[in-house]
């Protein structure tokens, strides 16, 4: 019989690309991962990996087994959720990933609601960039997380994860005076670090307006970016949740762009009582001016 834990390693290899990356993500040594995958190949009776020097890729049989693994893990998650519903009371930790502006504006209300309705539940918040969420969910570092997508940066699908819409918020141009993105083709820009969805959204919005932004500052905090913009250090794009308290001297102009936030979790866990409780609290905490 195929070992589920070894199947997880194969699934992670298909996503992360290297044995070293799998080992780092799951707190194994590379040699231990290699040994477990070799054992899985013996259990399967066919070659699952193709090795060329230091490079390892999945064979067609390996890719096919990963697809089955997703179904197996989803069924196991559903079984665990059903067992959790049978147990009396809702207690213990539930690990939640959140991007910073949601952690600051939504989760105070969420934690208050959960403390009142499920006092034995122990929500644990970890700040995560949405780009890191799929890996964190698959690795079991978090049980659920908030992710978002922008008009110019749609979310990518992951066969092992599910998500549901939470709310949509507008984006604003933060600058000394009212204006549009196109008005600032010659301005300096304050953007998020490379590799983030926020950065990609800004770059693609500027490209749609016919130019590439001239980056002056790379700041991974909207509050700091707005302070710099108020000082004349550049202009920046800010979502609604991060723009609730702009600094003096800064003008926010709503743009025809939006950011959509979703609740993501591992496939099969939507019915878990802890996931359902946090989801309910999140929906109740969303401000009424957001849809």
UniProtKB/TrEMBL annotation:
Keywords: DNA-binding, Transcription, Transcription regulation. The keyword Transcription regulation applies. One of its GO terms (molecular function) is DNA-binding transcription factor activity. Gene3D superfamilies: Periplasmic binding protein-like II, Winged helix-like DNA-binding domain superfamily/Winged helix DNA-binding domain. GO terms for cellular component: protein-DNA complex. Belongs to the LysR transcriptional regulatory family. Residues 2-59 form the HTH lysR-type domain. PANTHER family: LYSR SUBSTRATE-BINDING (PTHR30346:SF29), TRANSCRIPTIONAL DUAL REGULATOR HCAR-RELATED (PTHR30346). InterPro entries: ArsR-like_HTH (IPR011991), LysR_HTH_N (IPR000847), LysR_subst-bd (IPR005119), WH-like_DNA-bd_sf (IPR036388), WH_DNA-bd_sf (IPR036390). CDD domains: HTH_ARSR, PBP2_LTTR_like_6. This is Transcriptional regulator, LysR family. It holds the Pfam family HTH_1. Coiled coil: none annotated.
